[in-house]
Amino acid sequence: MTSALSKCGRTGGIRKPLLLILGGFFFLLIIILLFNTFRFTGQPVVVYPVKDIKVDGAATAERLATAVRFKTISHQDSTEHDKGAYLALHAYLEQAFPRVHATLSKELVSELSLLFTWQGVRPELKPVVLMAHQDVVPVDPKSADAWSYPPFGGEVRDGYVWGRGTLDMKSGLLGILEAAEMLIDEGFQPERTVYFVFGHDEETGGDCGARQVARLLFEAGVAPAFVLDEGGLIVQDVIPGVAGPVALIGIAEKGYLSLELSVESPGGHSSRPPRQTAIGILSRSIVALEENSLPARFDGATAQLFQAVGPSMPLMERIVFANLWLFRPLVIRMLSADQKTDATIRTTTAATMIEGGAKENVLPTRAAAVVNFRLLPGDRVEDVIDHVDQTIDDSRVQVTVLKLQGKPRGASPVSPTNTAGYRVLTRSIREGSQEEDLIVAPYLTTGGTDSKHLAELSENVYRFTGVKLGSGDLDRLHGINERISIKEYARLIRIYYHLLRNLNELSIETGAQSYAF
């Protein structure tokens, strides 16, 4: 009996120090988590005196609506472009913005793309490039009846301009011209040269438009201080844990790769099928790719986004993002659960086209599908192809690289946020928006833009469209009932206005800090 009690006593004696050690470790962990959370604060917001900009909402909305009526549809086969629609749009722009056309020089590139040059009074300063595009995606005839107003009607109703291109991207094109027209009317002259690049085939890769403009600028020795194209939006109730508006500036964009998966088969009568038809084999390969996504990574532009918005989150979320050394796996799991945020942390896989078979009782001799990948920075095209081969692991499935929108490409470089260009863009967004709780943050653009063609000219390439959209509006991009509110279009114009004005201040030295590029 004594021996047994002694053993119990010794066990309790060992357990007590262990509990003290664990308790001390847990207390220290809490202190570290709270200390990091306390230090996790956002960047201070600098408030500048703002000139009151009067935007004539009715007039600007009608000009945008008129531009929407030109069916500048981008087709995969460039020979199908309606050149007349583009040229008619050009003629309308000349009529609508006479001061711009009288002051800036205009050049046609590849017949349909536009390059405007606003000559600066100090040519020694690096220029800036502002971009948008004229072309729009087609409207599926099957969905035309689902639109509240005709997709190319350019209707101004209910406080909105309706139609294809109102968001992507005629609003940006006309918004730039509206701002320039206002500034010229005020007698403004830019210190540095500003280029406006308006491509005509962005929706199919931009090889004939922006790419050719980039070649011309390169041959002329143009090295922009920064490039600004479409991309990030002002979103609300979209980022988990952030209720207020967030202006997202794209500092990188994902790469692009499309693969065709094809299966050949002898065919035959459907009454005597093999165990797997060509369609069955193809379907299994697609399912395998969808069930085996490429690995997620929380770094780069996406990590910078949450570094910027994290301090505005509720306490528990702040603790998580302030202590990624511990919670990174949890963050990846959280972001993976939503398709919008999942796209920011991995190379995505999307089966987009499929074909096979000609008759219900005939076995197809060939079945094919297209799978589109948007590459995360750091993932290479060849790595994705290897992943596809290993995942499918079926010699009956042929994998072919497609070049429908130019050659496959990796993600763009990540542009820095500690530059004068990023600072002036941030300031202009705040001045044009006038929302005290607005957060400006970098992020990863998941789609593609024409700016990729200018990446070799400047390491400072940013992507931003100055329009606020809620989560329900994001599906209107390339979708049904595309529209822009007159109020938000006015915001977009004000942001471009302030940006063009603020570029002049970048050439002024203030104290020990120079804002010159």
What does this structure look like?
By secondary structure, this protein is of the alpha+beta class. It is built from 14 helices and 19 strands. The strands form 5 sheets. Strands 1, 2, 3, 6, 7, 8, 15 and 16 form an 8-stranded mixed sheet that branches. Strand 18 (509-510) and strand 19 form a beta hairpin. The longest helix is centred in the first third of the chain and has 38 residues, at 2-39. The N and C termini lie far apart (86 Å). The model is unreliable at 1-9 and 508-517 (pLDDT under 50).
Please give the structural blueprint.
Blueprint (H helix, E strand, L loop, with lengths): L1 H38 L17 H12 L14 H14 L1 H6 L1 E5 L3 E6 L9 E6 L21 E3 L2 E3 L7 H16 L8 E6 L10 H10 L6 E11 L9 E8 L1 E10 L3 E2 L8 H14 L8 H10 L5 H8 L1 H13 L2 H4 L5 E9 L5 E2 L2 E10 L5 H12 L4 E6 L17 H14 L5 E7 L15 E10 L12 E3 H20 L3 E2 L2 E2 L3
Parallel strand pairs: 3-6, 3-7, 7-16, 8-15
Antiparallel strand pairs: 1-2, 2-6, 4-5, 5-17, 7-8, 9-13, 9-14, 10-12, 11-13, 18-19
Helix pairs in contact: 1-9, 2-5, 2-14, 5-14, 13-14
Radius of gyration equals 27 Å
Distance between the termini: 86 Å
Mean pLDDT: 92
Number of contiguous helices: 14
**Morphology call:** globular
User: How many E-type strands?
Assistant: 19
- State which percent range the strand residues make up: 15-25%
Classification by helices and strands:
alpha+beta
User: Main β-sheet: number of strands, strand sense, barrel status?
Assistant: 8 strands, mixed
